[in-house]
Specification:
about 60 residues; mainly alpha; 434 Repressor (Amino-terminal Domain)
C-alpha cells in the first residue's frame, strides 16, 4: 500500500498529521514517518483504519466538488 500517497491525499484535503493520527489511533510522529517513507509496513488493523479514512474523505471530497 502506498501510505505516502494516502497521507498526502488526506493532507491535501486539509487534515493535519495529528488529525489523521487521532482518527486512525496512531501518533503524529508515526504518521510523519509514514509520509516520509521511513515506515513501510503497518499492522493490518492500523492500515485498514488509514485506508478507511482515506476512502471516506475522498468520497466526501468528490461529493462536495
Amino acid at each position: 500500500m502506498d501510505w505516502q500517497k494516502i497521507i498526502s491525499d488526506l493532507v491535501s484535503l486539509g487534515m493535519t498529521q495529528a488529525e489523521i493520527g487521532k482518527h486512525v489511533q496512531l501518533s503524529q510522529p508515526t504518521i510523519s514517518d509514514l509520509a516520509a517513507g521511513r515506515i513501510q509496513d503497518l499492522r493490518w488493523s492500523a492500515g485498514e483504519r488509514l485506508r478507511s479514512l482515506h476512502k471516506r474523505r475522498m468520497r466526501s471530497a468528490k461529493v462536495a466538488a
